[in-house]
Structures are given as C-alpha cells and as structure tokens.
Amino acid sequence: MNCNRVICRNEVIIEGINVGQFETLRVSGNDRQLGDSAVITIPLYAIGVTNSGYAKPRLRYEFAPNLVKTLAEITVNCWYEGYDKLTVFHGFIEQIVEGFPMTIYARDMTFALKFGRIQKTWGDVTMSQIANDIIPIANEAFKKERENAGLSAPTMTLKYASSGPYVQATTSTFPFNNPVDFSPYDTVQRIMQLMVLYGGVTDNGELYVGALTKNSTLPAVQLDTRYNVFDTNLIREDSRFINYEVKVTGILKNGRRYTATGGMRNSRSVKQDSELDKKYAETIRSFSTLNTVEEIQAAADRQLLSLQGVRNKGRIVVPLYPKIEPLQSVQLNHTLFADLSGNYYVLEYELSCSDSGYFQTLTVTDKVFAI
Description:
This protein is mainly beta.
C-alpha cells in the first residue's frame, strides 16, 4: 500500500526564548468575534526553577524567574519536516493553568485592546475617528501593564489603516452611542455587533473593522479532494424548505443606521411575541454600503431570493499547508460530488495539533454577500 507520511514539528517561543514543543494546540477564530484565541499545552513541570532540585532535570529550559506569565508575548510555529515554518499564532498569554502539562490560554494582538478604559462618547462618528481615539489608549495601558509585570521588551503596537487590501465596509459617519468605561476591545466588539461588521488584526498589527476578508487581494486558496483535503462534511441544502430572516444594515445619507428585513416593506412593522411565534428558521445578517431605505430594502430582498435556492455549507478538513484564516475564500474541487465544487467563504477556523497530526478545520458556506 502506498501512503503519505509527514513528520510534524513545532516550537513555542515566549518573550523571545524557545521553550520547546507543545503537546497540543488549538487555534480558533470566526467572523463574529474580534480576534483569534489559542489553547496550548506544554510539558513543563515547573516554572522559574533556578536552584537545583528534583524538578530541574525535567525542564526543557531553565527559565529566568517568572518568564511564563500573563501578558507575556507568545509565538507558535508549526511545520512539516522539509517545509517552511509557519507562524500559526502570535499574541499574548491571557491565562495560565499550572499542571502536568501546563495549559496556556492566549489571544492574538487584539489582547492589547482589553486594556484601558474609554471615557469618551461619540454620537455621530466615523470608524477611523473611533479607532484613532481608542488605539493609543489601549497601547499605552497595555505597555504599562507589561512593565508592571516585569516585561519590558518592546512589542508590536496596534494601529489602524483604512486603505490598502484590508477593505473597510464604510467610511461615512454613523451613530454610535457607546457606554462609558468600556474597554477598547468591548467598544470595537459592540460596533461589530450593532453594525453587523467583521473585524480582526493583521499580522503586522493593523486593526480593521468592516471587512469580509482580511486581504482582498489574495486569490482563493485551491483545494482538491485528490491532493490536499483530508475530509469534508458538506451538505447541499435545498433552501426552498427553509424560511430565512434576512437582515441588511446600512447607513442612510442622514447618518442614521437602518436595518431592512428581506421580503418586508418595513423592518420595524413585524413583532414576534414569543419564541412560539418565531417565523424564521435562520437569521442571515450583513452590512451594505447603500445609503437609502429603498436601496437597502432592495438589497435585503435580493439576498432573500438568492437564499431561496440551493446552497452548500459544512466543514472541510485540510493539512497545515496552505495556511487558511477566517474571512478567506477557498476554491474546492470535489472529485466525487461535482455539485459540491465551487468557491467557499470561511466563516470559522480551527487549527488542531497533537500527536495525531496537524489539521485545519474550516466551517464554510458558498452563500456570502460581499460588502
């Protein structure tokens, strides 16, 4: 029997020091949550041991005191032997559970946004104004927290860019009455929820909000069940038998936020008294750059009509290469079922690494409405 076999390698780097290999790793992200998170187990039996003792021979590295701590910068690289290293996670330690092995919970660069408090209220504002107000607060507060924790090494600082391949959904003014004393992170997450936007942080620390893709210039990743797909769990769903609630949000010319419901003339004309009266099986939300009630309503109607056909959705499992992220497109060639071939949008992403191998699991759909 012929088979393919690869040797999986990895390394964990904390504050610039290689601490060895992980036992397991799980990196996850989706199109609704700001930022990616990681759970890492490392076979370290003690932390900060500098004197002789029974635990010392078990250490992969003799750490400086308290190297592994909350706020420490952490980078995880994975690769197949003979292939280039891939940085699969870069961020900061959020929480540590000491044990055998030790478990580290980490968050990507968005972790810096959790520090500092916003006392300003904006009213009518642009996304650029909000970002330029909150990012300096987060960067300064995060820097002080690291210094107080004894971590003085410089780290990447967050910034905001409204141009380039990171497509912004809107540059116009919109109403935003935020509660005071929110963290910068909660402020951005609230904008994403209210406006049905998407967001994250790029590899070089650029915060973006409103993009349906992290990089609009990237071509769709080519996947083929003959070569680089381990498993698929896709369903070809006949949506004629599903009642959708399509909601499209946009900013009107007067700066007000407006949400239209597909198939209804006025999104505020229908009220549901209880869950028993719920008329829809699945809610589909999106944002539109259109700026009149009529145009936004027409967009919602078109989306509803488009959904009332056939769509593919489910999961695709692929190897470590090529590296795929949420908010990215993949082109699948399914050699067994041609109807499942086509372009898919990655809604959720999970990288799972263990002694069983390194696998990317993508939750995908072929029905996404571009902003």
